[in-house]
Structure formats: structure tokens, C-alpha cells
Amino acid sequence: MDSHMADELVVPLKFLGDRVQFLFLLVLWQAMQDTVAGLTQALQNVVQAGNQAAAARNGAGDLHWNFRSLNPPRFSGSPDPDEAENWQEEIERIFQVTQCTNREKVVLATFQFTKDARAWWKATSAHLPNVAELEWARFLEIFRGKYFSERVKEKKAVEFAALKQKGMTVAEYEAQFAHLVVYAPHLVGTERLKANHFMDGLRPMFIERLGPYNIQTYTEMVQRAQLVEDTMAKVEGMRGKDNSKPVFVKNGAPNIAPTFCNNNKRLNAERDVAGDKRVKVEGRQLAENCKFCDKPGHRAEECWKKFGACLRCGGRDHRIPDCPMMKDQPGRAQNAPRRQGRLNAVIEADLPE
């Protein structure tokens, strides 16, 4: 091979080597680009996952902070079902304004447990499968099974059956009735039964006024009872104003001078033809018994027994054995006919000057 041919062959080989080198570099650059893109995507995935985790942590922190800012009640595990019920109602009321899932409700609610309740939940949750996935409805079943036992429900039902108004106002009695009635639904299956049970627990004076109306609903019964109570209070107020003026009691006997009777003593009791004792104040017969001695004809603030007075004449300086009115009785003939009493006339007047 001569030199001329050698020169012609070197040039293509040289060109071919440069091209191969170029292709190699091109492939290498592409591979590097792919690697960088992959690393970039991987880095972006890591950053995104971190952001999501941080957002989740921040969201949980915000949820807990929002929940705590509403001042949720704590529960110590009291055996009183009323406390457990009040705690549940208050917690659920807070959940109504808190954006949380049913599982988050369980976490937030149990966070408020203290003392015995915390120890109970720690022991109970240890035996629950997938406690982290426990729903709110299932939690309430477990909670109420612990703090609302059948024995407690029966005790509350007995308390409801024996509930009486006694010294409570109608509003106070109704509040107690509404609180206990949930434990005895079998006693108030209909509106009429519920209304009648409410009336049966009222004081006799209310039953006397409400019974004739044959009220069919619980709501109407409560409203009418409150109306009766308001009316009675109004009448008592009017009587108080009437009794603020002094009165003179004029005896029916013509030879006895009028005597002054103040408001701290009862008017003299007379007997009618049948012998029944009646007491009238300003022409009106008192319908209620005294709340102190449970006797008819006077109020508690006028009761002789309450003030330790003589039960014969009302005097406060002696008792019945020493009563001047009793001293005259031995000399009276046993077979003497009983004189029919005269009804005292009550006349309002100003004090004489």
C-alpha cells in the first residue's frame, strides 16, 4: 500500500472515531439527564411526603387546640349516671362545632378522662382490636355499658315512680320529672299516661284544680299547672294586701263591746248547725290546710301551735290547762243545751285616733 492510499484511509477512520466518541458522549449525557430527572422526582416525592406529614401533624394539633379552646369537661369516672350523662351531652355539643371524624371524636373524648375513668379506659382499650379505628357509636356503647348499668337504670326508675312535688315549685318539679322519665319509659307509654303521672305527683291543691279538665298531653298539663301556681301566688298577694289593714271583730252579742283583732291571731271559730267547725276570714272560707299543723281554717303564719300559743283562745301567756275559758266549763251544766254560735262580722276600719 502506497502512501497515497494510506492517507485516504486514515481520514475516514479518524472521522469515524470522532463520530463514535460523539455518540458515546450523547448517550452518556442522556443517561445523566435521566438520572438527574429521576433524582429530582425522588426528591420532590420526599419533600411532598414530608409536607403532607407536617400538614397532618399541624392539622391534628389545630384540631386538638380548637377542641381544648372550647373548654370541654373532664370525666373522673363517677358512679353517678347523671354525671356521665351530662359529660356525654356536653362533649357531643362541642363536637357539633368541631370538624372531626368519628375516630377523632374517640381520641378527643378519651383525652378528657381522669382518675378512675382514665384507668378504666386504659384497661378496656388494651383488649379492643384495632382501637385506633374505633368509631364513636361503638365507643358510646362501651361507655354507657360501664356507667349506665341496668341496676342504676332500675334505681332511677324507682326514684321516678316515687317522685312528688312536695315543697318544689312546678318548674323545679317538672325539671326533676323530665330528668328521671328517661329511665322509666314503660310508665309513660303515651302522652296521656305521662300527663297523668305528672299530675299525680303534684300537691293535692293542684290535683283538685287540674283533675276535672281531663288533660290529654304532657305539655298542656305542665302549662296548666304553672298557670294554677301563678294564680294562687297572685291570690295570696291580694290577701296579703287585704290583711295589711287592721280589722275590728264585732261580736254578735249586743251587750259586749267591739274588740280589736290584729292580723297575728285567728278569728274566733264558730260552729254551724251541723256542728262542723268552719273558719271564715272576711266572708271567705280558707280552702287550704295550715302547712305547719295541717289543720284547716288558717295559714301557717297565723298558726297558734307554731307560736306556742294557747290552742283554746290563742293567748301566748298560758297553755290550755291554764286557759281562762276552760275554768268556766266545770260550772256549766252537763245537760245544758249548746248555744248556736253566731257568725262574726268582719268590718275593715281605720284605727281610732
From TrEMBL:
<dbReference type="InterPro" id="IPR036875">
    <property type="entry name" value="Znf_CCHC_sf"/>
</dbReference>
<dbReference type="GO" id="GO:0003676">
    <property type="term" value="F:nucleic acid binding"/>
</dbReference>
<protein>
    <recommendedName>
        <fullName>CCHC-type domain-containing protein</fullName>
    </recommendedName>
</protein>
<feature type="domain" description="CCHC-type">
    <location>
        <begin position="289"/>
        <end position="305"/>
    </location>
</feature>
<dbReference type="Pfam" id="PF03732">
    <property type="entry name" value="Retrotrans_gag"/>
</dbReference>
<feature type="domain" description="CCHC-type">
    <location>
        <begin position="309"/>
        <end position="325"/>
    </location>
</feature>
<dbReference type="GO" id="GO:0008270">
    <property type="term" value="F:zinc ion binding"/>
</dbReference>
<dbReference type="InterPro" id="IPR001878">
    <property type="entry name" value="Znf_CCHC"/>
</dbReference>
<dbReference type="InterPro" id="IPR005162">
    <property type="entry name" value="Retrotrans_gag_dom"/>
</dbReference>
